[in-house]
């Protein structure tokens, strides 16, 4: 199985037709590091996550996962990446357990039933395990989607607005989960507009503005204050 | 072995979803039956069907309803972006293609189970006089049509005008398959059955299947990478 301890983006650009979504973005992250990717709507955050997830290729520049790159490592590398996107990547017609079971098998995990039970427990959905996802609230789907993204214990965790739709209890649970991922040595990239919630959980924050990456300086003040100063 | 397991996993998931919603089966079946009935009003006069109408109408019903099924099969994956989740997973992408193809083929087979006897009934066509050849033509024709259709439906899943583009791209490419299906079926339905001709068209369909499936397996991964 492929593993890696660093993620390195070097001069990554991405164009969609004539529109430049990312312009020469460089970013390095190490195992056990949690990085917040901030920025206004349309700044290119989701594009950057999609590139890191190997879903889209950069127009120029290089993305390396330790010694590997997406083109040569292929499926083995994808098996070490977990993505929670805007869309939740769940089949509404399947139950919570069936969704997790399907993806556990897709990832060729051992002990499928045990993993499914544990994931449902963490998502607080054990009593709703056989209910179709179509009947779940946004928050319940979000919790299930997070467990789906982390089911295969990925090294690189990419979370796009993970706090969307969560109530206070679920938000606290997710904060604990993020802290656990850091302790487990995951590389976590998280985009959010919920700066107060993420403050204190991250090692550093960077901001995308019109496709360009800006580092948010450490220092006095809350994450929101520092973010506003950087804008 | 892994390839086959993945194919079964994807196909089983698609069939489970369809068993719950029955959306594709009912719409496709309704469309195919309506198509046959409308043509029956046009091409059957005083209880007698016109010429080779039955063969043509059978394949038109399969092609039109197949297009509907193909579009919906991938629309489902688009709605919750589950196709992205599958593309991100470590599974072989050709296995993903074959899994989706098998799901579509099973649905089309279910539609054909109703439509073929209906065409036989409405057009007094002896479709079961040569069952082996007939099943061979249906099987190979459906595989050829669905092989190209699955690839195009996957390619167009993110296109805004995918519903219009799918038939526009699909029909010109699959015309050889439809013609072979129609001519092979017609050879079995004419007054003096022409078995060698039906076998020739069947061989042609097998050739098309090999070419189309090989090309689709080869191109699926690059066309699905954005």
Provide a brief overview of the structure.
Chain A has 231 residues and is an alpha/beta fold. Chain A is built from eight helices and nine strands.
Taken as a percent bin, the fraction of beta residues of chain B is under 5%
Number of helices of chain A: 8
Structural class of chain B: mainly alpha
The H-and-E topology of chain A, N to C, reads as EEEHEHEHHHEHEHEEH
Helix/strand class of chain A: alpha/beta
Number of E strands of chain A? 9
Provide the spatial order of strands within the biggest beta sheet of chain A.
Answer: 5-6-7-3-8-9
Please outline the major beta sheet of chain B.
Answer: 2 strands, antiparallel
What is the terminal-to-terminal distance of chain B? 29 Å
How do the strands of the widest beta sheet of chain B line up side by side? 1-2
Shape of chain A: globular
Evaluate the radius of gyration of chain B: 18 Å
Strand content of chain A: 25-35%
Shape of chain B: globular
Provide structural commentary.
The complex is a heterodimer of chains A (about 230) and B (about 230). With about 230 residues, chain A is an alpha/beta fold. Chain A has a domain at about 5-80 and about 155-230: Rossmann fold, CATH 3.40.50.300. Chain A is built from eight helices and nine strands. Chain A has helices at about 45-50, 70-80, 95-105, 110-125, 140-150, 170-185, 195-200, 225-230, and strands at about 5-15, 20-30, 35-40, 60-65, 80-85, 155-160, 185-190, 205-210, 210-215. In chain A, helix 3 crosses helix 4 and helix 4 (about 110-125) runs antiparallel to helix 5 (about 140-150). Chain B has about 230 residues and is mostly helical. Chain B is built from eight helices and two strands; from the N terminus they run H-H-E-E-H-H-H-H-H-H. Chain B has a two-stranded antiparallel ribbon. In chain B, strand 1 and strand 2 (about 50) form a beta hairpin. In chain B, helix 2 runs parallel beside helix 5 (about 95-120), helix 5 (about 95-120) packs across helix 6 and helix 6 runs parallel beside helix 8. Chain B starts with a helix and ends with a helix. The mean pLDDT of chain B is about 90. Chains A and B meet through helix 2 and helix 3 of A and helix 1 and helix 4 of B.
């Amino acid at each position: 199985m492929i593993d890696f301890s660093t993620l390195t983006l070097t001069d990554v650009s991405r164009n969609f037709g004539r529109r430049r979504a990312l312009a020469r973005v460089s970013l390095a992250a190490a195992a056990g590091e949690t990085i917040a990717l901030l920025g206004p709507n349309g700044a290119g955050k989701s594009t950057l996550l999609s590139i890191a997830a190997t879903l889209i290729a950069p127009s120029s520049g290089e993305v390396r996962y330790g010694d590997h790159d997406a083109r040569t490592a292929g499926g083995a590398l994808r098996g070490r990446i977990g993505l929670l996107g805007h869309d939740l990547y769940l089949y509404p017609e399947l139950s919570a357990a069936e969704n997790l079971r399907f993806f556990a098998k897709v990832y060729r995990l051992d002990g499928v039933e045990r993993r499914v039970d544990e994931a449902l427990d963490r998502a607080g959905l054990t009593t709703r395990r056989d209910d179709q996802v179509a009947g779940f609230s946004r928050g319940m789907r979000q919790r299930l989607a997070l467990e789906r993204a982390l089911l295969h214990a990925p090294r690189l965790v990419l979370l796009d607005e993970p706090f969307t739709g969560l109530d206070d209890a679920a938000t606290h649970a997710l904060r604990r989960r993020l802290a656990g991922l850091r302790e487990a040595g995951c590389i976590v990239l998280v985009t959010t507009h919920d700066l107060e919630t993420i403050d204190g959980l991250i090692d550093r924050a960077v901001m995308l503005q019109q496709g360009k990456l800006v580092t948010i300086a450490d220092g006095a003040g809350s994450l929101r204050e520092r973010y506003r100063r950087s804008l | 072995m892994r390839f086959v397991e993945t194919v079964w996993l994807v196909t089983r998931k698609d069939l489970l979803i369809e068993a719950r919603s029955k959306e594709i089966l009912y719409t496709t079946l309704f469309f195919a039956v309506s198509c046959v009935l409308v043509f029956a009003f046009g091409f059957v006069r005083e209880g007698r069907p016109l010429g080779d109408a039955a063969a043509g109408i059978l394949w038109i019903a399969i092609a039109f309803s197949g297009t509907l099924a193909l579009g919906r099969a991938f629309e489902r994956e688009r709605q919750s972006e589950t196709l992205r989740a599958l593309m991100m997973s470590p599974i072989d992408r050709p296995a993903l293609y074959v899994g989706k193809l098998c799901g579509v083929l099973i649905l089309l087979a279910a539609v054909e189970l109703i439509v073929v006897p209906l065409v036989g009934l409405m057009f007094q066509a002896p479709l079961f006089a040569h069952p082996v050849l007939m099943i061979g033509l249906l099987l190979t024709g459906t595989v050829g049509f669905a092989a190209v259709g699955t690839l195009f439906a996957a390619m167009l899943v993110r296109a805004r005008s995918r519903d219009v583009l799918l038939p526009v791209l699909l029909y010109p490419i699959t015309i050889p398959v439809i013609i072979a299906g129609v001519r092979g079926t017609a050879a079995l339905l004419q007054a003096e059955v022409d078995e060698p001709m039906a076998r020739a068209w069947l061989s042609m369909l097998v050739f098309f299947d090999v070419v189309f499936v090989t090309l689709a397996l080869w191109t699926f991964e690059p066309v699905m990478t954005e």
